[in-house]
Design a protein that fits this description.
By secondary structure, the chain is an alpha/beta fold. The protein has 10 helices and 15 strands.
Length: 369
């Protein structure tokens, strides 16, 4: 089994190598002790060994699995880590844990990378947005101070204050004898959002997404962008087929663009079929580097979708003219982690969009271990 690591997971591996979690190179199952390195995969069945790939699909490490635990959020893996090759250098390597810099007496951990305070040494956080980190390093460098860059780990078992507490602990282990943690002022870090509407062809997800986009533009001060599945296919993913590999690449491209929009404080509304749980998990990971991720299951039953069949696709799939058609000759993996489900009770498009809007504007994200 191979696992392509997200940027936060690569950060976690970097911290593991730097000794931030102790002398042993080992992932552990999440417990009440937050200060452990963790690894979560989407597969339920975990093999004895997992090869870890970087973002360019180059093998960089191996995990020899000794135990695992499956939850609603995925499967957590514990085991020893063996490096296969040196990973590519991360941004600002001279300021990171691997640089072997001397321990500071005191530093300020700037959550949100707010460096307006001109005094004192600073620990900035690499949350995966190189542009934002570059601006923070440039601003911090204008004053005579020491700068450290702390990789923000995946730590998918933590959220909110617990996640911030872990960052403070890591900064104290790696960079300074004492650390003051300061949260950003002004616009909240992570104000961007990705909303993924997933469902069968003909479920109504594109129509709901368009109505939701209109409502969000009226209700929210943020810029809202619609990434519809058919339009993305025609422009961003022109030339791709409908094999599993091509469909995964299509969703990965949508996820990457959506995450970039969220990184700049926007809201991206996406409406591909996204039939596989692994696709949606990868998209969630990219989005949560920058802000919230809301998964909407448009749960219109197959028989209703097929009865609509405006494009004649289901008829062609039944006749064998279209291979690997979702819901007929290829599976649709029903989301177990959807934030909201619409479409199953024959509500109108307006009612479905209103339900999603309420969930997006008022509900807080939840995390499960």
């Amino acid at each position: 089994m191979q696992l392509r690591l997200t940027r936060p997971q690569l950060n976690e591996l970097e911290l593991l190598r730097a000794g931030a979690y102790g002398a042993d190179m080992r992932y552990q199952l999440p417990t009440r002790d937050a200060n452990v390195a963790t690894l979560r995969v989407t597969d339920i069945a975990v093999p004895p060994s997992i090869e870890l790939l970087d973002t360019e699909a180059t093998p960089i490490a191996r995990v020899d699995v000794r135990e695992s635990r499956t939850t609603a959020a995925g499967t957590w893996v514990a085991g020893d880590v063996t490096m296969l090759r040196e990973p590519a250098a991360a941004p600002f390597a001279e300021h990171r844990p691997s640089a072997g810099l001397p321990l500071l007496d005191h530093a300020t951990l700037a959550l949100g990378n707010d460096v307006r305070d001109p005094d004192g040494d600073a620990v900035l956080v690499d949350a995966g947005d190189v542009e934002s980190l570059s601006r923070a390093v440039a601003a911090a460098s204008r004053s005579p101070r020491e700068i450290r860059v702390l990789p923000r780990p995946a730590a998918a078992h933590l959220s909110g204050d617990d996640a911030d507490a872990l960052l403070t602990h890591l900064a104290e282990v790696l960079f300074a004898s004492s650390v003051t943690t300061r949260r950003a002022t002004g616009r909240a870090r992570g104000s961007g959002m990705v909303i993924l509407l997933t469902g069968l062809s003909g479920s109504g997800k594109s129509t709901i997404a368009r109505q939701l986009t209109r409502r969000l533009r009226a209700e929210s001060h943020q810029r809202v962008t619609l990434l519809d599945g058919d339009e993305v296919r025609a422009m961003l993913s022109s030339g791709l087929g409908f094999s599993r590999a091509d469909r995964e690449l299509n969703v990965r491209r949508i996820g990457w663009v959506a995450a970039q929009l969220a990184a700049h404080g926007g809201i991206a509304v996406c409406a591909p079929i996204a039939p596989y749980a692994s696709m949606r998990a990868e998209m969630r990971a990219m989005a949560e580097e920058h802000g919230r991720f809301v998964l909407v299951h448009v749960a219109t039953p197959l028989e209703v979708c097929e009865a609509r069949d405006r494009k004649g696709l289901y008829a062609k799939a039944r006749a064998g003219e279209i291979k690997e058609f979702t819901g007929i000759s290829d599976p649709y993996e029903t989301p177990a982690d959807a934030d909201i489900a619409v479409g199953a009770d024959d509500e109108s498009i307006e009612e479905a969009a209103e339900a999603v809007l309420r969930a997006v504007l008022h509900a807080e994200p939840t995390y499960m271990i």
